[in-house]
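User: My collaborator sent over this chain with a note saying "see what the structure looks like." That's all I know about it. Can you take a look?
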Amino acid sequence: MSVAGLRRAARESVSGLPREFWWLWTSTLVNRLGAFVATFMTLYLTLERGYSASFVGLVVALHGLGGVVSSLVAGVLTDRLGRRPTLMAAQASTAFSVALLGFMEQPAAIAAVALLVGMTSNASRPAVQAMMADIVRPADRVRAFALNYWAINLGFAVSATVAGFVAEYSYLAGFLGEAALTLVCAVLVYVKLPESRPERTAAEVADAGPEIGLGTVLRDGRFMGVVGLSFLISLIFMQGSFGLPLAMGAAGFSTADYGLVIGVNGLLIVLLQIPVTRFIEHRDPQRLLVISALLAGYGFGLTAFGGSVWSLALTVCVWTLAEIVNSPTQMGLVARLSPLHGRGRYQGMYTMSWAVASLVAPLMAGFAIEHFGAAWLWGSTAFLGTLAAAGYWLLMRGLPAEGPGGVEGSAEPAEPAVAAELRPKAASGS
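Assistant: Without extra context I'll predict from the sequence alone. Here is the result:
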């Protein structure tokens, strides 16, 4: 492709999205640039503090448990208080708790604050995803979610490299640096992002049925099916962080070998997320989700046959492509199935599926490798991928086609119902 063609493709990838989306995108990027705790928690507790592996496992589990709890609570707050105050509160409290964690010395205090960090850092996700669904047209949501996911991975790739050098100097500096950047995000939200929660019209208030609650979400069979499938897919993808290093270590590979192999994942996402999303943006989401589930399951399954760094890197290429396709497509489906005035609760339930998977995945990897061997773990990922693919195929049968204005037959209007200040100037008339 020529330089002019590349420029045109880049313009098309980012054009048509509202200004507020880009401020939200910037907030995501800045937040991930400061991702120190999630990356270096284990090394900090073992190398700097000298704690045992069992205590480190407890702390990491508590951090994950905090995310499970906060997902539902933050989802409710996102609908009741609004996206903006929930997001600001989550980021400000994350900044405080991360800074506090850097000063904790007693084991009980470290465990308690790690739980708090898990709760606060995960609380922003339902608000971010609900706000994105509010301010972006339905036809552009897959592209918007893909760009946001790209920002997450770009920020993480940069932060992991920089934080490694910072950790050699001072772990405390890493904690304080993350706290400062998270506080910058809170200020950015306060200054640049107005509230986007759709307000009910007089007719909607008059015709309103029972208020949407968590019970409504739990009774939504199709959506809870998506949550269950998200959990299965998460179990698969998280083996890149839990099962893969364990299996490579048991096979005699070094930590540098693992770093090289897993680095392929981040590099491919940064390079391919936007062009692949342009290719899949208007294609059948059922087919995309089925294919991505199979690629994920069998991509990890191929790890059983990887005898060298380069063969393992090739398996990472397979499941990374699945990740690139699955993530924005699934998030678009979640936004599509979420009712207009219940997006926070629906997004909170979806976020919880990933948080629960982060608790189960390391247990699954450790148990399978210790008792049966790594081959059984990779065989189980292939089975889970097949199960998820069948689930997506069954779940999305009969789902009304989504046109340029939204989902056919849904209660969502053709234009996202957003606050007046979010509407483009040109659309407001003169």
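A starting point for your reply to your collaborator: The beta strands are 402-403, 406-407.
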